[in-house]
Design brief:
Blueprint (H helix, E strand, L loop, with lengths): L3 E7 L4 E2 L4 E11 L3 E5 L9 E5 L8 H6 L7 E5 L10 E8 L19 E10 L17 E5 L5 E5 L3 E3 L7 E3 L15 E2 L2 E2 L18 E5 L4 E5 L5 E8 L4 E7 L19 E4 L5 E4 L6 H4 L13 E6 L7 E6 L3 E3 L7 E3 H40 L2 H10 L11 H7 L8 E4 L3 E7 L5 E7 L7 H4 L11 H5 L11 H21 L3 E3 L8 E3 L5 E3 L6 E3 L6 E2 L11 H6 L1 E2 L1 H17 L4 E3 L5 E3 H11 L8 H6 L2 H14 L10 H14 L24 E2 L6 E4 L2 E4 L2
Parallel strand pairs: 30-36
Antiparallel strand pairs: 1-7, 2-3, 3-6, 3-8, 4-5, 4-7, 9-10, 11-12, 13-14, 15-16, 16-17, 17-18, 18-20, 19-20, 21-22, 23-24, 25-26, 26-27, 28-31, 29-30, 32-33, 34-35, 37-38
């Protein structure tokens, strides 16, 4: 047989076997090995696999397989319907080999392994002919209905919710399979995060009837499976005892779930699919109306005092009942005292909540009083009284204020790490936004010695746009980035500030820690050289000073590192590294593609000897800058990075070259999606600014402001 084959089957009309009997084909059995049969023109599940036959272990003929129970071992069965009225006149089948068994390896296989044979299944129906139909037949039993069968006669069956023999007195018994009490204590009631309430259960003795048994196949993934006993399985996601619903996913979709309506000798399924927005089935406690269920008190499901019985979906083919808590209550109506009053619960809960709040308020007030006393003690100990006197003696005391800790916490978003703008030896500086929207710097002390308190009390400035390092090394998709023109302007301003320190002040100031993270940008993106904690003041009659090595690795002048002699050319070398950062957009110590750590200045000097400069600069610099501008900056950076300090230019020469280049560059950037950073309007006397974040001085224009 081929891997897939489609065949047709036709039936004839029922054959009469006598006055009281009829014969009809009710299905087909298929004997064979390792195949699936698909009933293609099935009225409700087109194309679904209808039955599967596996290969038997031993020798077995096809007739033996077909005549036995046909349970899938060498034979499978397809039933056409519940009655002979359902038998189709024509059925279309598709046979597909499953390919799970190597037939060639079985040398002694029987004919059953070679072919697939189909045999009709027939049944004989009978009828009582003492009356022509149900209407004329006398009513003799409580739970009987009658069917007119054919042209003459009738048949009996137990009414919905009952089963047994309708032809004997009291032969139909009600559905009494429900047991309202849990037999086992300490039942498991969860499968992962899915609750399994009674009457359902995961263990024997924990459910009300066998049809309510669920299998927790994997608690970690919350895999809960229900088998309705009629070939349908549900991966349960939620069980609602009040609504009588089970929500589920797969393995079958809602359209594929078929509610099996069995014959008289079979109980009806307790589950029926409902058309709710969520894929779900409705369940009932038993196939009884509420009236019939209440007659059997020992098997009645609604045992909670405040529960109600609801007859669910009554019809001539399906009937059942479920329980629901009464109005004003909630809980589980299927367990004793399972329905809790909402009003009572709210009252008790409100009382407990009020008690907890009152107790919490008293405790919190006591703690606040203690904290106030401790804070006042520390305030007086840490020069707080002196601070109060200074504020009162000020000509404009209204402009000065002592802020409570709570307001400072609010201004810094509870000292959020993202608000940090500087870290010193004695404290951390945060950017704060006061209630009147003023931006301030708030310094939070570290644990320091009492003798260092005076060193902690210093002023600070807030820098809204961070440092040059933070912007040029940020992701370019960030909304804040600098154009090439802005980079040249900022470099020019920083060089002008360093030149002023070296030669324009009464004393020469060697910064000793020039780096892009110490070039800060204010609200107008004006460069401000900061952090003079490592700076040294040098008299004009001295060209250098011998000092301990201090600086940042990657920016440190190698000549200063090896000799210990600090001079103005040490700052020039460090500034040259900043220029290379602007060109290559790499950090002073970076990791290359092979994963090796490299020094940026050494990498730059080595690469420009072997490759054109346009091959090593950052791509977006290459897009914005002209070749002449790139060559100018690269040449200036190369001069600044010479190993011998005497061969390097002075900061004045560096500033002049940058100033000349800046005048040639159009700094206006036109872009709809990027920040427009223009050179700010400056007063005629404007000079670059330097700020001190230590305890030295702030330099702005030509005026010096003491921080103490």
């Amino acid at each position: 047989m081929a891997n897939a084959k489609t065949v047709f089957w036709s039936s004839s009309s029922p054959k009469s076997l006598g006055d009281s009997f009829d014969a009809k084909v009710s299905g087909l059995s298929f004997s064979g090995c390792d195949f699936d049969v698909y009933w293609l023109n099935h009225p409700s599940k087109r194309g679904m696999a209808s039955c599967t036959a596996t290969c038997p272990d031993g020798e077995r003929t096809d007739m033996v397989a077909a005549k036995e129970n046909c349970n899938g071992n060498g034979c499978c069965l397809i039933l056409f319907g519940d009655t002979w009225f359902d038998s189709p006149s024509t059925a279309k089948f598709k046979f597909v080999r499953r390919g799970e068994v190597n037939l060639e390896s079985h040398h002694n296989r029987s004919l059953l392994w070679e072919t697939i044979n189909a045999y009709p299944w027939e049944y004989i129906t009978w009828r009582i002919v003492d009356h022509p139909d149900c209407v004329s037949a006398p009513t003799r039993a409580f739970a009987k209905t009658w069917w007119t069968f054919g042209n003459y006669g009738y048949n009996c069956k137990c009414r919905n919710g009952y089963r047994g023999n309708p032809y004997i007195l009291d032969g139909c018994s009600p559905d009494n399979g429900y047991s309202p009490f849990q037999q086992k204590s300490n039942c498991i009631r969860h499968c992962g995060n899915i609750s399994v309430p009674f009457p359902f259960g995961l263990e024997e003795g924990c459910y009300a009837r066998i049809q309510f048994y669920l299998s927790c196949q994997n608690a970690t993934s919350s895999t809960l499976v229900l088998d309705d006993g009629y070939g349908s399985t549900y991966n349960v996601t939620n069980i609602s005892v009040d609504n009588g619903l089970i929500e589920y996913i797969g393995p079958k979709t809602a359209s594929e779930v078929e509610i099996y309506t069995p014959d008289d000798d079979w109980p009806q399924s307790l589950y029926v699919r409902v058309g709710t927005p969520v894929v779900s089935v409705q369940w009932v406690a038993a196939h009884l109306t509420c009236q019939d269920a209440k007659r059997n008190s020992s098997g009645y499901a609604c045992i909670s005092t405040n529960s109600e019985c609801i007859t669910s979906n009554p019809s001539d083919r399906y009937v059942g009942y479920r329980c629901k808590y009464a109005q004003g209550y909630q809980g589980n109506p299927y367990i004793r005292n399972g329905c809790v009053g909402i009003a009572i619960g709210l009252s008790v809960g409100f009382g407990i909540l009020l008690f907890c709040l009152s107790g919490g308020f008293i405790i919190r007030r006591c703690r606040n009083d203690i904290q106030k006393q401790v804070k006042r003690k520390y305030f007086e100990k840490n020069k707080g009284l002196l601070l109060e006197q200074l504020i009162c003696s000020n000509e404009k005391p209204s402009e000065n204020k002592i802020f409570p800790l709570e307001e400072l916490q609010k201004a810094t978003n509870n000292f959020d790490p993202t608000r940090i703008i500087g870290i010193g030896g004695h404290g951390i500086v945060y950017k704060g936004i006061l209630s009147d929207q003023r931006v301030v710097a708030i310094k939070k002390p570290k644990i320091i010695k009492e003798g260092e308190i005076n060193q902690f009390i210093n002023e600070y400035m807030t820098i809204p746009n961070g440092s040059l390092f933070g912007i040029i090394h940020a992701d370019r998709s960030n909304e804040e980035f600098l154009s090439w023109g802005d980079c040249i302007r900022i470099a020019t301003e920083a060089a002008r500030a360093l030149y002023y320190l070296h030669s324009a002040a009464s004393w020469s100031v060697f910064h000793r820690d020039v780096k892009s993270s110490n070039i800060l940008l204010d609200g107008n993106y004006t460069a401000m050289v900061s952090d003079f904690g490592a700076s040294r003041l040098i008299p004009f009659d001295q060209s250098h000073v011998i000092t301990n090595i201090q600086g940042t690795f990657g920016y440190l002048d190698p000549e200063y590192y090896y000799t210990g002699q600090l001079n103005e050319k040490s700052d020039v070398y460090s500034f040259g590294v900043v220029l290379v950062e602007l060109l290559l957009r790499k950090e002073p110590i970076f990791t290359d593609e092979s994963g090796s750590k490299k020094n940026l200045s050494n990498y730059f000097i080595s690469e420009i000897k072997d490759r054109p400069i346009r091959e090593i600069v950052a791509s977006h610099v290459l897009e914005e800058a002209t070749e002449d501008e790139i060559n100018t900056i690269a040449s200036l950076a190369e001069d600044c990075l010479r190993l011998r300090g005497e061969e390097r230019p002075t900061m004045k020469e560096v500033e002049m070259k940058l100033h000349f280049l800046h005048n040639k560059v159009n700094v206006v950037q036109q872009s709809n999606n990027e920040r427009h950073l223009l050179q700010p309007t400056r007063p005629p006397h404007h000079k670059a600014m330097t700020i001190d974040t230590g305890n030295k001085a702030i330099l702005e224009s030509s005026t010096c402001y003491n921080l103490e």
